[in-house]
């Protein structure tokens, strides 16, 4: 829920600042450019972190397989098998029930 709120607020701030760029031509343009740039950077940092979670979690299965699992006892092998089965589906951060947050999502929001 917090991620949905954060993503919504950042999207609205970007849209508001871009509308303000089009509407006005005053002396505060440097402030507006700086503020918009910081909002976009914040959006990309949020998306990058979510993307890293997805990428790293998809490598867990390979890391377990590449370990010396065959030298472990039967109980440990069973636990590692469960870990590998769960790691087949990567962890993701979702923006409410709408979509999964990735780098592509942030680019889509900032471009459109």
Automatic annotation (TrEMBL):
What InterPro entries has UniProt attached to this entry?
7tm6_olfct_rcpt
What stretches pass through the bilayer? 27-48
User: Which biological process, per GO, is one annotated for this protein?
Assistant: signal transduction
Classify the source by domain of life.
Answer: Eukaryota
Q: Does the keyword Amino-acid biosynthesis apply?
A: no
Report keywords, A-Z: Cell membrane, Membrane, Olfaction, Receptor, Sensory transduction, Transducer, Transmembrane, Transmembrane helix
Show the Pfam families listed in the entry.
7tm_6
Kindly list the GO CC terms recorded for this protein. plasma membrane
Q: How does it sit in the membrane?
A: Multi-pass membrane protein
| Coarse class of the protein's main subcellular location | membrane
UniProt GO molecular function: odorant binding; olfactory receptor activity
- Where does it live in the cell? Cell membrane
- Does this entry carry the keyword Cell membrane? yes
The protein depicted here goes by the name Odorant receptor
């Amino acid at each position: 829920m917090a991620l949905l709120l954060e993503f919504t607020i950042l999207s609205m701030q970007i849209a508001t600042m871009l509308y303000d760029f089009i509407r006005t031509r005053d002396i505060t343009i440097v402030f507006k450019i700086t503020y918009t740039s910081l909002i976009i950077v914040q959006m990309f940092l949020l998306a990058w972190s979510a993307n890293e979670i997805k990428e790293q979690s998809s490598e867990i299965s390979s890391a377990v397989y590449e370990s010396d699992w065959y030298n472990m006892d039967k109980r440990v092998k069973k636990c590692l098998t469960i870990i590998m089965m769960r790691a087949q589906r990567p962890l993701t951060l979702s923006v409410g029930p709408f979509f999964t947050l990735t780098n592509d999502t942030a680019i889509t929001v900032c471009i459109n």
